[in-house]
Amino acid sequence: MERQAIQETKKMVDRCNKCGLCTTSCPVYQQVLIEAANPRGRIQLVKYFLEGKIPLSKRFKEIILTCLLCETCVVNCPSGVRHDQVFNDLRAELVKQYGLDWKKRFVFNLLTNEKLLRSSMVFARLGRSRLIETLTKGMRIGNIPAGKLPRVNPRPFRDRFNGVIRPDGEPKGRVFYFTGCFTNYFGADVGQAVVNVLKQLRVEIEIPAAQDCCGIAAILSGEGDLPLENVSRNIAVLSRARVDAVLVDCATCGAAFRKEYIALLKRKGMETAQAEILKGKTFDVMEYVAERLGELPLPKDYKGGKIRVTYHDPCHLVRAQGVSDAPRKILKALPQVEYVEMEEANTCCGGGGSFQFDYPEISKGVTEKKIACIRETGARVVATGCPGCRVTIGGNMNDHDRIDVLHPMQLLDMALSGKMGKW
Ligand code: SF4
Ligand code: SF4
């Protein structure tokens, strides 16, 4: 760690008075019940390491990595300890000492090379053939049956457009829609819903084909160098774009632009001024739409049946960006929806990016609690603004659950187009 970073991290861990208020709500601690694996224990271990009392041993590495980075501890700490900052600094240190495992390096190399990513999707598309599906029947990736993993879009979502989508008539605004890799390669239905709604708001939408992966998966794994080119390009292009807002449909891309880019650049002792501009321009698409809900032609005299919907708060939206009202405002405004709040809506789903594949036993317990809360509502749909959460929750549901997992923008689009009643 750089000398300045060590001083900063040391100051942060010294804030801990060991009160323990962060411990009981830690979803990992609730599963493993080991003091060293709760936020207080981890902070104390980092303190001892920085004081030179313990080495960065393999056991210490496991403890630091067995964390969902859900930030529940951050919001529960009265002393202002930023566990996320401390743990990310340590992850960067771990990569320096131990390197990254080859599978992660392979995936991050793909994600940070758009050409390579694009061509790999051609093979992934072929991989979903009937033959391969028969061969992989019964296989699981972490806790998720292979057959429940998302299907690759027939063609990349961004290829549907010529860069700019103009509304009929004079535009009321201009936005940049950063689709992220997930919508581009797996979630075309979400992307189309976003475009349909923004068009109804008479907004001009810029979706250039050339967008780089936000790189957050690598950043949060402690590998800050690999995504640095993507980060610099995204910051340069998006912060200079002449638009009212940069919109994202993915909680994690939003967290990258609003939080993690600045943290990474600071960690590397680099300039952050442009990244601050991008932070100021970035909004989750639900925030943007929730402020303009009154301009949308939602049916006023709907008399049909209602569909029960509940909402799960993604960690990267509720804690990393402080967004929780906007999705609820949208869902409650839909005349065809009966909105029901679930217990512990803002508790982590247990996905944590690759955490669910690295530590499936711990992840399983966390996800099962989340799914139990969803089931208790009797909802037919659970909505959430994070593709990772949708994969984790949807992939861990039982077949007899009959609960769909959707982005709130898909429900809004259906409500506007009259498809909800027919569903
Ligand atoms: S970030 Fe979440 S999982 Fe990690 S220590 Fe904090 S509460 Fe526990
Ligand atoms: S809540 Fe904050 S001060 Fe209290 S033990 Fe946890 S990290 Fe330390």
Fold and architecture overview:
The protein has 423 residues and is an alpha/beta fold. Among the domains are: 3-98, Alpha-helical ferredoxin (Fumarate Reductase Iron-sulfur Protein, Chain B, domain 2), CATH 1.10.1060; 299-417, Rossmann fold. It contains 22 helices and eleven strands. The chain has helices at residues 3-14, 27-32, 39-50, 58-65, 72-76, 83-98, 102-111, 114-127, 130-135, 180-185, 188-200, 216-220, 228-240, 251-267, 273-281, 285-290, 315-318, 325-333, 355-358, 360-377, 387-396, 408-417, and strands spanning 140-141, 144-145, 164-165, 173-178, 203-206, 245-248, 282-284, 307-311, 337-339, 381-383, 404-406. Strands 3-5-4-6-7 form a five-stranded mixed β-sheet. Strands 9-8-10-11 form a four-stranded parallel β-sheet, sandwiched between helices. Helix 13 packs across helix 15 (273-281). The protein starts with a helix and ends in a 6-residue tail after the last helix. The mean pLDDT is 92.
